[in-house]
Amino acid sequence: MLKSRATGDDEQFYSIALQIAAAEARRGHRTTAEDLRAAVDEARAVRSRGASVPISFAQPRGELESLIDLKEPELHLKDVVLHESVKEKLNDVIRQQIKRDWLREHGKTPNRCVLFVGPPGAGKTMTAEALAGELHLPLFVIRLESLITRFMGETASKLRLVFDETLKRRGVYLFDEFDALGGHRNATNDVAEMRRVLNSFLQLMEQPNATDSILLGATNHPELLDRALLRRFDSVVEFESPSREQVKALITKYLRPLKYPRLAWKKIVDVAMGLSQSEIARASEDAVKTAILDERDTIRTEDVLRRLNDRREMRDAFSKSKS
Predict the structure, then answer these.
(1) Beta 139-142 vs 235-238: how paired, if at all?
(2) Are 183 and 190 in contact (CB under 8 A)?
(3) Which domains, and CATH codes, for the chain?
(4) pLDDT value at position 323?
(5) H or E segment at 214?
(6) Interatomic CA distance for residues 291 and 298, integer angstroms
(7) Cα angle vertex 242, ends 290, 319, to 5°?
(8) What is the CA radius of gyration of the chain?
(9) What is the value of pTM for the model shown?
Protein backbone atom coordinates (compact mmCIF):
# COMPACT_ATOMS: atom_id res chain seq x y z
CA MET A 1 0.00 0.00 0.00
CA LEU A 2 2.83 2.39 0.92
CA LYS A 3 4.70 1.45 -2.24
CA SER A 4 1.70 2.32 -4.44
CA ARG A 5 1.36 5.66 -2.67
CA ALA A 6 5.06 6.41 -3.08
CA THR A 7 4.97 5.68 -6.81
CA GLY A 8 1.84 7.80 -7.30
CA ASP A 9 -0.38 4.85 -8.30
CA ASP A 10 -3.55 6.27 -6.75
CA GLU A 11 -5.91 3.62 -8.15
CA GLN A 12 -3.83 0.81 -6.65
CA PHE A 13 -3.74 2.69 -3.35
CA TYR A 14 -7.53 3.11 -3.34
CA SER A 15 -8.04 -0.54 -4.33
CA ILE A 16 -5.95 -1.77 -1.39
CA ALA A 17 -7.80 0.61 0.95
CA LEU A 18 -11.13 -0.82 -0.22
CA GLN A 19 -9.85 -4.37 0.32
CA ILE A 20 -8.98 -3.41 3.89
CA ALA A 21 -12.49 -1.95 4.26
CA ALA A 22 -13.98 -5.25 3.06
CA ALA A 23 -11.84 -7.19 5.56
CA GLU A 24 -13.00 -4.91 8.38
CA ALA A 25 -16.63 -5.40 7.34
CA ARG A 26 -16.19 -9.21 7.46
CA ARG A 27 -14.82 -8.86 11.01
CA GLY A 28 -17.94 -6.97 12.00
CA HIS A 29 -16.26 -3.55 12.13
CA ARG A 30 -18.84 -1.93 9.88
CA THR A 31 -18.28 1.64 11.09
CA THR A 32 -14.57 1.41 10.28
CA ALA A 33 -15.35 -0.09 6.87
CA GLU A 34 -17.82 2.69 6.04
CA ASP A 35 -15.33 5.35 7.16
CA LEU A 36 -12.64 3.89 4.91
CA ARG A 37 -14.97 3.72 1.91
CA ALA A 38 -16.17 7.28 2.48
CA ALA A 39 -12.53 8.46 2.67
CA VAL A 40 -11.72 6.77 -0.65
CA ASP A 41 -14.77 8.33 -2.30
CA GLU A 42 -13.81 11.77 -0.99
CA ALA A 43 -10.18 11.38 -2.11
CA ARG A 44 -11.29 10.42 -5.62
CA ALA A 45 -13.72 13.33 -5.77
CA VAL A 46 -11.02 15.82 -4.70
CA ARG A 47 -8.60 14.40 -7.26
CA SER A 48 -11.04 14.82 -10.15
CA ARG A 49 -12.52 18.16 -9.02
CA GLY A 50 -12.07 20.96 -11.52
CA ALA A 51 -11.57 18.65 -14.51
CA SER A 52 -14.43 17.66 -16.80
CA VAL A 53 -12.67 14.35 -17.57
CA PRO A 54 -10.17 12.94 -15.07
CA ILE A 55 -8.32 10.67 -17.52
CA SER A 56 -6.24 11.32 -20.58
CA PHE A 57 -8.13 10.71 -23.80
CA ALA A 58 -5.88 9.62 -26.64
CA GLN A 59 -6.96 8.85 -30.19
CA PRO A 60 -6.45 5.16 -31.07
CA ARG A 61 -3.36 4.66 -33.22
CA GLY A 62 -2.06 2.19 -35.75
CA GLU A 63 -4.52 -0.37 -37.08
CA LEU A 64 -7.12 0.72 -34.51
CA GLU A 65 -7.20 4.23 -35.99
CA SER A 66 -9.37 3.02 -38.88
CA LEU A 67 -11.62 0.94 -36.59
CA ILE A 68 -12.40 3.27 -33.67
CA ASP A 69 -13.39 6.93 -33.52
CA LEU A 70 -12.78 8.76 -30.25
CA LYS A 71 -15.47 11.17 -29.05
CA GLU A 72 -14.95 13.20 -25.90
CA PRO A 73 -18.42 13.35 -24.30
CA GLU A 74 -19.98 16.76 -23.77
CA LEU A 75 -23.37 15.52 -22.54
CA HIS A 76 -24.74 14.13 -19.27
CA LEU A 77 -28.03 12.37 -18.58
CA LYS A 78 -29.65 15.66 -17.55
CA ASP A 79 -29.09 16.85 -21.14
CA VAL A 80 -31.13 14.00 -22.64
CA VAL A 81 -34.93 13.68 -22.46
CA LEU A 82 -35.66 10.07 -21.51
CA HIS A 83 -38.52 7.92 -20.17
CA GLU A 84 -38.26 7.12 -16.46
CA SER A 85 -37.80 3.40 -17.16
CA VAL A 86 -34.77 4.19 -19.34
CA LYS A 87 -33.31 6.49 -16.67
CA GLU A 88 -33.69 3.78 -14.03
CA LYS A 89 -31.79 1.20 -16.08
CA LEU A 90 -29.03 3.66 -16.95
CA ASN A 91 -28.69 4.82 -13.34
CA ASP A 92 -28.32 1.19 -12.27
CA VAL A 93 -25.44 0.70 -14.75
CA ILE A 94 -23.83 3.98 -13.62
CA ARG A 95 -24.11 3.08 -9.93
CA GLN A 96 -22.50 -0.31 -10.49
CA GLN A 97 -19.71 1.20 -12.56
CA ILE A 98 -18.95 3.99 -10.09
CA LYS A 99 -18.77 1.51 -7.20
CA ARG A 100 -17.19 -1.31 -9.17
CA ASP A 101 -14.42 -1.69 -6.56
CA TRP A 102 -17.02 -2.43 -3.91
CA LEU A 103 -18.52 -5.16 -6.08
CA ARG A 104 -15.13 -6.70 -6.86
CA GLU A 105 -14.34 -6.84 -3.13
CA HIS A 106 -17.18 -9.38 -2.90
CA GLY A 107 -16.26 -11.31 -6.04
CA LYS A 108 -18.84 -9.58 -8.26
CA THR A 109 -18.38 -7.57 -11.45
CA PRO A 110 -20.42 -4.54 -12.54
CA ASN A 111 -22.84 -4.78 -15.44
CA ARG A 112 -21.11 -3.54 -18.57
CA CYS A 113 -22.82 -5.07 -21.64
CA VAL A 114 -25.88 -3.00 -22.58
CA LEU A 115 -28.13 -3.13 -25.65
CA PHE A 116 -30.02 -0.03 -26.82
CA VAL A 117 -33.05 -0.77 -29.03
CA GLY A 118 -35.51 1.67 -30.55
CA PRO A 119 -36.53 3.54 -33.70
CA PRO A 120 -34.15 5.87 -35.57
CA GLY A 121 -33.74 9.27 -33.92
CA ALA A 122 -34.91 8.04 -30.50
CA GLY A 123 -31.73 9.28 -28.79
CA LYS A 124 -29.65 6.09 -28.58
CA THR A 125 -26.36 7.62 -29.74
CA MET A 126 -26.92 10.77 -27.68
CA THR A 127 -27.60 8.62 -24.62
CA ALA A 128 -24.40 6.66 -25.22
CA GLU A 129 -22.48 9.93 -25.09
CA ALA A 130 -24.37 11.00 -21.95
CA LEU A 131 -23.55 7.67 -20.28
CA ALA A 132 -19.86 8.18 -21.03
CA GLY A 133 -20.14 11.73 -19.72
CA GLU A 134 -21.66 10.59 -16.43
CA LEU A 135 -18.79 8.14 -15.91
CA HIS A 136 -16.09 10.60 -17.10
CA LEU A 137 -15.00 8.08 -19.72
CA PRO A 138 -14.15 8.44 -23.42
CA LEU A 139 -16.72 7.28 -25.96
CA PHE A 140 -15.23 5.04 -28.63
CA VAL A 141 -17.46 4.52 -31.68
CA ILE A 142 -16.69 1.35 -33.65
CA ARG A 143 -16.59 1.97 -37.40
CA LEU A 144 -18.45 -1.03 -38.78
CA GLU A 145 -17.70 -0.05 -42.38
CA SER A 146 -14.01 -0.65 -41.60
CA LEU A 147 -14.58 -3.59 -39.29
CA ILE A 148 -16.65 -5.74 -41.66
CA THR A 149 -14.78 -6.89 -44.75
CA ARG A 150 -15.34 -9.49 -47.46
CA PHE A 151 -12.08 -11.35 -46.75
CA MET A 152 -12.36 -14.56 -44.78
CA GLY A 153 -11.14 -14.27 -41.22
CA GLU A 154 -10.31 -10.56 -41.44
CA THR A 155 -13.46 -9.28 -39.71
CA ALA A 156 -13.02 -11.63 -36.75
CA SER A 157 -9.37 -10.61 -36.49
CA LYS A 158 -10.28 -6.90 -36.43
CA LEU A 159 -13.01 -7.58 -33.90
CA ARG A 160 -10.43 -9.16 -31.59
CA LEU A 161 -8.28 -6.04 -31.92
CA VAL A 162 -11.21 -3.92 -30.72
CA PHE A 163 -11.90 -6.20 -27.77
CA ASP A 164 -8.20 -6.26 -26.85
CA GLU A 165 -8.40 -2.46 -26.68
CA THR A 166 -11.32 -2.66 -24.22
CA LEU A 167 -9.00 -4.70 -21.96
CA LYS A 168 -6.29 -2.03 -22.09
CA ARG A 169 -8.24 1.22 -22.11
CA ARG A 170 -11.33 1.79 -19.97
CA GLY A 171 -14.11 3.49 -21.89
CA VAL A 172 -17.57 3.20 -23.42
CA TYR A 173 -17.43 1.29 -26.72
CA LEU A 174 -20.42 1.83 -29.01
CA PHE A 175 -21.35 -0.65 -31.75
CA ASP A 176 -24.00 1.31 -33.66
CA GLU A 177 -26.26 -0.53 -36.11
CA PHE A 178 -25.36 -3.62 -34.12
CA ASP A 179 -27.62 -5.90 -36.17
CA ALA A 180 -24.93 -5.80 -38.90
CA LEU A 181 -22.79 -7.91 -36.55
CA GLY A 182 -25.38 -9.65 -34.40
CA GLY A 183 -27.86 -10.91 -36.99
CA HIS A 184 -29.42 -14.38 -36.80
CA ARG A 185 -26.88 -17.10 -37.53
CA ASN A 186 -29.56 -19.02 -39.46
CA ALA A 187 -30.64 -16.03 -41.58
CA THR A 188 -31.27 -17.01 -45.19
CA ASN A 189 -29.06 -14.22 -46.53
CA ASP A 190 -26.23 -15.04 -44.12
CA VAL A 191 -22.86 -16.46 -45.10
CA ALA A 192 -20.53 -18.74 -43.16
CA GLU A 193 -18.07 -15.91 -42.54
CA MET A 194 -20.63 -13.73 -40.70
CA ARG A 195 -21.69 -16.73 -38.62
CA ARG A 196 -18.07 -17.09 -37.56
CA VAL A 197 -17.91 -13.38 -36.77
CA LEU A 198 -20.99 -13.58 -34.55
CA ASN A 199 -19.60 -16.65 -32.77
CA SER A 200 -16.37 -14.74 -32.15
CA PHE A 201 -18.32 -11.76 -30.83
CA LEU A 202 -20.28 -13.96 -28.42
CA GLN A 203 -17.07 -15.52 -27.10
CA LEU A 204 -15.29 -12.18 -26.74
CA MET A 205 -18.21 -10.72 -24.79
CA GLU A 206 -17.78 -13.40 -22.14
CA GLN A 207 -14.06 -12.97 -21.55
CA PRO A 208 -13.07 -11.36 -18.22
CA ASN A 209 -12.41 -7.62 -18.40
CA ALA A 210 -10.38 -6.00 -15.61
CA THR A 211 -11.07 -2.47 -16.88
CA ASP A 212 -14.87 -2.98 -16.78
CA SER A 213 -15.18 -1.14 -20.10
CA ILE A 214 -18.79 -0.76 -21.19
CA LEU A 215 -19.90 -2.44 -24.42
CA LEU A 216 -22.93 -0.74 -25.97
CA GLY A 217 -24.85 -2.22 -28.86
CA ALA A 218 -27.44 0.00 -30.57
CA THR A 219 -29.97 -1.19 -33.12
CA ASN A 220 -33.16 -0.07 -34.84
CA HIS A 221 -34.02 -3.71 -35.66
CA PRO A 222 -33.88 -5.91 -32.53
CA GLU A 223 -35.91 -8.58 -34.36
CA LEU A 224 -32.86 -9.25 -36.55
CA LEU A 225 -30.56 -10.08 -33.64
CA ASP A 226 -29.51 -13.63 -32.83
CA ARG A 227 -31.27 -14.91 -29.70
CA ALA A 228 -27.97 -16.05 -28.17
CA LEU A 229 -27.07 -12.40 -27.68
CA LEU A 230 -29.84 -11.86 -25.12
CA ARG A 231 -28.06 -13.82 -22.39
CA ARG A 232 -24.77 -12.02 -23.11
CA PHE A 233 -26.18 -8.56 -22.44
CA ASP A 234 -26.59 -7.48 -18.82
CA SER A 235 -29.35 -5.02 -19.70
CA VAL A 236 -31.60 -4.20 -22.65
CA VAL A 237 -32.78 -0.57 -22.77
CA GLU A 238 -35.78 0.13 -24.99
CA PHE A 239 -36.21 3.64 -26.40
CA GLU A 240 -39.68 4.82 -27.42
CA SER A 241 -41.18 7.83 -29.11
CA PRO A 242 -41.43 10.87 -26.77
CA SER A 243 -44.54 11.26 -24.61
CA ARG A 244 -46.52 14.51 -24.60
CA GLU A 245 -44.57 15.79 -21.60
CA GLN A 246 -41.27 14.86 -23.24
CA VAL A 247 -42.26 16.56 -26.49
CA LYS A 248 -42.82 19.82 -24.62
CA ALA A 249 -39.54 19.39 -22.71
CA LEU A 250 -37.63 18.76 -25.95
CA ILE A 251 -39.07 21.77 -27.74
CA THR A 252 -38.48 23.99 -24.71
CA LYS A 253 -34.87 22.84 -24.55
CA TYR A 254 -34.07 23.53 -28.20
CA LEU A 255 -35.92 26.86 -28.43
CA ARG A 256 -33.50 28.42 -25.97
CA PRO A 257 -32.13 31.09 -25.75
CA LEU A 258 -35.01 32.79 -27.58
CA LYS A 259 -38.27 33.67 -25.80
CA TYR A 260 -41.53 31.79 -26.36
CA PRO A 261 -44.17 33.50 -24.16
CA ARG A 262 -47.41 32.67 -25.98
CA LEU A 263 -47.03 29.30 -27.64
CA ALA A 264 -50.15 27.19 -28.25
CA TRP A 265 -48.66 24.12 -26.61
CA LYS A 266 -51.59 21.76 -27.14
CA LYS A 267 -51.59 22.40 -30.89
CA ILE A 268 -47.80 22.08 -31.09
CA VAL A 269 -47.66 18.84 -29.10
CA ASP A 270 -50.51 17.34 -31.17
CA VAL A 271 -48.52 17.96 -34.37
CA ALA A 272 -45.25 16.69 -32.86
CA MET A 273 -46.63 13.40 -31.50
CA GLY A 274 -45.17 10.42 -33.35
CA LEU A 275 -42.03 12.24 -34.43
CA SER A 276 -38.67 11.12 -33.05
CA GLN A 277 -36.47 13.06 -30.64
CA SER A 278 -34.14 13.89 -33.50
CA GLU A 279 -36.95 15.22 -35.72
CA ILE A 280 -38.43 17.36 -32.93
CA ALA A 281 -35.00 18.76 -32.01
CA ARG A 282 -34.23 19.71 -35.62
CA ALA A 283 -37.64 21.27 -36.12
CA SER A 284 -37.19 23.37 -32.98
CA GLU A 285 -33.73 24.51 -34.04
CA ASP A 286 -35.05 25.44 -37.49
CA ALA A 287 -37.77 27.53 -35.83
CA VAL A 288 -35.06 29.37 -33.89
CA LYS A 289 -33.09 30.00 -37.09
CA THR A 290 -36.20 31.45 -38.72
CA ALA A 291 -36.71 33.89 -35.84
CA ILE A 292 -33.05 34.92 -35.88
CA LEU A 293 -33.09 35.61 -39.63
CA ASP A 294 -36.34 37.58 -39.19
CA GLU A 295 -34.52 39.63 -36.54
CA ARG A 296 -36.91 38.53 -33.80
CA ASP A 297 -36.06 37.44 -30.25
CA THR A 298 -39.42 35.67 -29.79
CA ILE A 299 -40.65 32.34 -31.20
CA ARG A 300 -44.20 32.19 -32.52
CA THR A 301 -46.50 29.17 -32.62
CA GLU A 302 -46.57 29.20 -36.43
CA ASP A 303 -42.73 29.03 -36.51
CA VAL A 304 -42.74 25.76 -34.59
CA LEU A 305 -45.78 24.26 -36.36
CA ARG A 306 -44.31 24.99 -39.78
CA ARG A 307 -41.04 23.26 -38.97
CA LEU A 308 -42.73 20.27 -37.34
CA ASN A 309 -44.93 19.83 -40.42
CA ASP A 310 -41.83 20.06 -42.61
CA ARG A 311 -40.33 17.12 -40.70
CA ARG A 312 -43.52 15.10 -40.98
CA GLU A 313 -43.63 15.75 -44.75
CA MET A 314 -40.00 14.59 -45.03
CA ARG A 315 -40.88 11.39 -43.18
CA ASP A 316 -43.93 10.79 -45.41
CA ALA A 317 -41.89 11.43 -48.57
CA PHE A 318 -39.24 8.97 -47.43
CA SER A 319 -41.88 6.33 -46.65
CA LYS A 320 -43.41 6.74 -50.13
CA SER A 321 -40.01 6.44 -51.83
CA LYS A 322 -39.27 3.22 -49.92
CA SER A 323 -42.65 1.68 -50.77
Answers:
(1) unpaired
(2) yes
(3) 2-48 (no CATH), 62-238 (3.40.50.300), 244-322 (1.10.8.60)
(4) 55
(5) strand 214-219
(6) 7
(7) 75
(8) 23
(9) 0.74
